[in-house]
Design a protein that fits this description.
Layout lengths: L2 H19 L3 E2 L7 E2 L5 E6 L11 E7 L8 E3 L3 E7 L2 E5 L2 E5 L4 E4 L5 E4 L6 E7 L1 H6 L5 E3 L23 H17 L4 E2 L7 E2 L4 E7 L10 E8 L9 E2 L3 E7 L1 E9 L2 E8 L3 E4 L4 E6 L6 E8 H12 L5 E2 L3 H8 L17
Antiparallel strand pairs: 1-21, 2-3, 3-4, 4-11, 5-12, 6-9, 6-11, 7-8, 7-10, 9-13, 14-15, 15-16, 16-23, 17-24, 18-21, 18-23, 19-20, 19-22
Length: about 350
């Protein structure tokens, strides 16, 4: 076969495999937890290691039993944690962060990290990482350190200090050194007690958990939490990249379709993961008439999605309905009764 026929067949096979493995909702009961040599119990929502291959971001749940301390390891990709139950701690390059439900943490690439639980009950957290995307580029490296003290393990990969000169090489050294310096000074932890929820025009109450806007430096990973009022809905929209939506509390359903009036409804509940495919119209509904539904949205925004926007320009890759349609979808926002903000709990 000519190169054209080989490429055409290969692309068709990739799309077929991708569609065959795609799932819109991964329910909590379908995620099998397995004990690992690290000292954690881990279950895969999305990722090759759980037979649900993805191309951008993976998702997994982790549990730590009382008194346990995991091994220390590091990797060439970064990850973000959402703590959903119990209390524990995470050490990042010898900095220990104590966390509880609703806290979020950034694990920078090449940082040595481990987790522990000094409480009397199990602790649980979700992780989302850019490993699938880094793996595509051939740069995915993982290093296990066992229970060795971090002081005896290797440090971050070194980089050259900036110097004088205005030639292209000197400018590149300065640019990359500046980027690395900023990355290594980025924020690592957001406590639940710091969060401020504000109502948005989409009919939800939202807050950033982990994002460049609040001092983080990630590979583009960003997390925000939104609440849907009792019996209410978020307005419909679509965007270029996939979105991972982890249900922290509540139950409801999501409309997802290729057209605004042609799609399916998918039910979800606490602990489920909703996967919104790229460029799909979607709208989320809270089916509980008395309680809010809380969902954490994960994107890989500043790197991958912004690159897609540039590659697909002038296509509009973020679309929302006009204001008069959005107001019909969300209802009168002034009538939403928002309860006092409380930490999530598990189970």
């Amino acid at each position: 076969m000519s190169h054209y026929e080989v490429q055409k067949k290969r692309r068709a096979q990739f799309i077929e495999e991708w569609r065959n493995n795609f799932k819109t909702v991964i329910h909590l009961q379908d995620v099998e937890m397995h004990k690992t040599p690290r000292g954690l119990a881990t279950g895969v929502y999305l990722g090759k290691d759980g037979d649900r291959p993805v191309r951008t971001v993976d998702a997994a749940a982790h549990e730590i039993e009382p008194g346990a301390v995991s091994t220390v390891h590091r990797h060439s990709w970064d990850a973000v944690m959402l703590c959903v139950g119990g209390n524990g701690w995470t050490e990042i390059d010898r900095t220990r962060i104590h966390w509880g439900p609703g806290d979020s943490i950034h694990l920078p690439a090449w940082s040595w990290h481990r987790h522990g639980n000094e409480g009397e009950s199990w602790a649980r957290f979700m992780s989302f990482s850019s490993e699938p995307f880094i793996d595509i580029l051939g740069f995915a490296i993982l290093e296990e350190g066992g229970h060795s003290p971090v002081s005896q393990l290797g440090g971050y990969p070194p980089y050259s200090s900036p110097g004088p000169g205005n030639d292209v090489y000197a400018r590149r050294i300065r640019r990359l050194a500046s980027d690395q310096g900023e990355n290594r000074r980025g924020r690592l932890h957001t406590s639940w007690d710091e969060l401020e929820f504000l109502q948005s025009p989409r009919g939800t109450r939202t807050t950033f958990l982990l994002d460049r806007a609040v001092g983080y430096r990630t590979s583009g990973l960003t997390m925000a939490m939104f609440e849907i009022g009792p019996g209410r809905a978020q307005s419909m929209h679509r965007h270029s990249g996939e979105a991972w939506l982890y249900v922290v509390d509540g139950h409801g359903h999501s409309f997802i379709g290729s057209n605004a009036d042609d799609g399916e409804n998918y039910e979800w509940g606490k602990g489920d993961l909703i996967v919104v495919d790229h460029y799909s119209w979607h709208q989320h509904f809270n089916d509980d008439k008395s309680m809010t539904a809380r969902v954490v949205r994960v994107h890989i925004l500043d790197t991958l999605l912004n690159t897609m926007n540039a590659l697909c320009y002038p296509m509009n890759l973020l679309e929302e309905p006009p204001d008069h349609i959005r107001s019909r979808q969300t209802g009168d926002l002034t009538t939403i009764v928002w309860p006092a903000v409380q930490r999530p709990n598990w189970p």
